[in-house]
């Protein structure tokens, strides 16, 4: 890979970390078998969301790049191409770890220019993926935010967030804290094929229950709703019912979007597992990365009607702020690329 794209040198002050700051480790244990970690010393950790974005947050923190959750649809796959890493298996198994994230965040929050704005986490790749079990970056990150009484939100598919429940409760005493768990469906057969590295939907919803029982409000981002595979009335009903039973404070649907990088990987998976759907997907996504507006509105209406039936409302605007949708990935984008939005 061309790490020089991101280190001191031709990239100048825009470099993401200093020269000679990469340490590559392969750990041969069952939980990390096949995964390579690239440990880096980041030069900055608080990232600004582009001004044109409609996201309800302006700043993000991402301690990792790449994700062992291995979700075949992950929009962030394209970011690995900026490192000359493969956006398919490479994204799932070549994980960049910003080992100095906690200390760097503490320094940036203490800077005179920082005004205490809301910070969203988990909106690019999951900050509670398996790597977090080894590197334990999130406790230091939460502590830094707690100590500055800085509001923040976390979006995750990882049940490892429960490890940090005491810290989250401490932070919630001094600042606004929004937690959301991503559960797009409860179909276990679908889960095993499209999200093979994640905890099961049931385990995630159990985490929601644990968080809410501990007094931490937790919403569910029902994402992605996958056309023709996870969008039947029966599947939507089962998922919303399970979300309501988990004690979630809100449910917000998000239909599958297929950006470049993710689109190619998902299409290859579709051709292997559901070849009869390839042509239907080509028609549905002929207009770009998003499903047609009519389809998105139909799914949203159905989910909100089910939510009302089961006594759970949609997310309030600005609540659980990490749930509105994924942010623009770090690094350069092709000309004409647009910020991801909920609908």
DSSP helix fraction: 25-40%
Multimerization status = single chain
Biggest beta-sheet profile: 7 strands, mixed
Give the strand line-up of the largest sheet.
Answer: 3-4-7-8-9-10-11
The pLDDT mean sits at: 86
User: Radius of gyration, Cα only, in angstroms?
Assistant: 19 Å
Task: List SSEs in N-to-C order.
Answer: EEEEEHEHEHHEHEHHEHEHHH
Strand tally is 11
Number of helices: 11
Secondary-structure content class:
alpha/beta
Distance between the termini: 35 Å
Which parts are unreliable, with pLDDT below 50 for 5 consecutive residues or more? 1-15, 316-329, 331-343
Estimated share of beta-strand residues: 5-15%
Shape: globular
Topology (elements, then pairings):
Elements: E1 23-26, E2 36-40, E3 46-48, E4 59-61, E5 64-65, H1 89-93, E6 94-98, H2 101-109, E7 119-121, H3 131-135, H4 137-147, E8 152-156, H5 165-172, E9 177-182, H6 188-194, H7 201-213, E10 218-225, H8 233-245, E11 251-255, H9 262-273, H10 278-284, H11 293-309
Parallel strand pairs: 2-6, 4-7, 7-8, 8-9, 9-10, 10-11
Antiparallel strand pairs: 1-2, 3-4, 5-6
Describe this structure in words.
By secondary structure, this protein is α/β, with parallel strands linked by helices. 31% of the residues lie in helices and 14% in strands. The protein has 11 helices and 11 strands. The strands form 2 sheets. A 7-stranded mixed beta sheet has the order 3-4-7-8-9-10-11. A 4-stranded mixed beta sheet has the order 1-2-6-5. Strand 8 (152-156), helix 5 and strand 9 (177-182) form a beta-alpha-beta unit. The chain is globular, with a radius of gyration of 19 Å. It starts with 22 loop residues before the first strand and ends in a 34-residue tail after the last helix. The model is unreliable at 1-15, 316-329 and 331-343 (pLDDT under 50).
